[in-house]
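Workshop exercise sheet. Pairs work together: one partner reads the sequence aloud, the other fills in the structure field after running the prediction. Swap roles for the next sheet.
Pair: D.N. / O.F.
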Amino acid sequence: MQSENSGFFCSIQVDSKNCVSNAVWVDARARMSYTYFGDAVYFDTTYSQNENMAPVAAFTGVNHHGDTVVFGCALILDRTESSYGWIFETWLAAMDRRLPFSFTTDEGKGMAAAVAKVFPQCFHRLCRWRILSRCKKKLTDVYTRFPGFHDELKRCINGCDTVPVFDMFWGSILDKYGLRDDTWLQSLYEIRHKWVPAYLTSSFFAELSLTHRVETVSRFHRNNFSARVSLSTFINRFEQHMDSLYANEAQKDIISFPLEQLLKTNTVLEKQAASIYTRSAFETFQAELIEALQHFAIKVQDGPYMKYCVERDGNPPTRHTILYSVAEEKAWCECCRFAFSAIPCRHVLRVFVLAGVIMIPEPCTTKRWTKKAKTGPELIGLNVGNESGSANDVASRYNDLVHDAMKCAEKGAVSAGAFRFAKEVLRKAFMEIKGLGEKLNTNDMHSAVANR
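Structure field:
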């Protein structure tokens, strides 16, 4: 495959017997997507739940439409700390050593240790959906006797946006169902700062919704890959699946909807959001705005940083404190939802409405969820350094050119006219580059003859 696609990256690790132990592969499209949406990465190891599935994991993220995007895959035959370390290091090298802001994985001491070594500057989170799924197996008797238990547990985890409210709700569930002495739930509570949203307020996770899980590649794995399917067959099927994901993203990029079909409040804030956000991001903003209009806000402190209290129906658990600076055009809410998802929360929006803020302040929007997410400078987080890469390095120049070519391909594929124009421009550019190369070769030959 690497010979067929020069933008394809693949690295294989072998053991002492020269047998494959692990592998990592990334294609040019995955690299391109990572430059835009690599701020939050999920290492999907769904295969470990089913012994009949071959051990193929995926590095995934979320694009500006709220859909899954794949950043690469790994074959894991040796599940040790050193193997995970090699996989993460190899993948990071394929991504020019650009770190995400957050890195989400399943539980596991070996994996956690590898993440700490390779991604020390990233916030490492455990996947709460995998933890909820495991709860069903660990608490089978409770689930059987109390059909409503799972929904209550999900509401507690996903619906509580501050630590005190979560702790209160969690405790009430333990008391209601007599689970104070359950060792499984005790172990989960001890690591709550690694997976409960109320505790994860210091990093970005690219989640538009806490209650709706983005479709991962796990369903594709279950339907297409078992231990009886060869790796080459799976990779071909996966490439087809990737094609469909990119086609879906391109289709959503060019689809537009009349504003009158989307608006529900007819406020300027909503109209502005509809004009800048993608459909999925706008719907999240819209839901927050509608909720904001159901909340009550009161200013409790004046000054450079005004303090507001916002709550709904006089219900104390819904009460939040917001600081708002007119000079900085910034607002901070104790729910910290903006840091988590980069969409203004209902409490901040309620303060904006009360304060007469007509347009969403620029500091309260991020390009990541907008229709222009894939234009201009990329978003991705931290560069941990690539000492071998430079303007004089062939590999670096090659990767840079592939990146630009992928941009041309994205824009040129949206219509037949754009396709024809892009093909002609690329053909002319190729002929000019080819001519330059032949001229340089001729000059080099003349120089060599003259120096004899």
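Discussion prompt: The chain has three domains: 1-127+212-255, 259-369, 394-450. What would you look at next?
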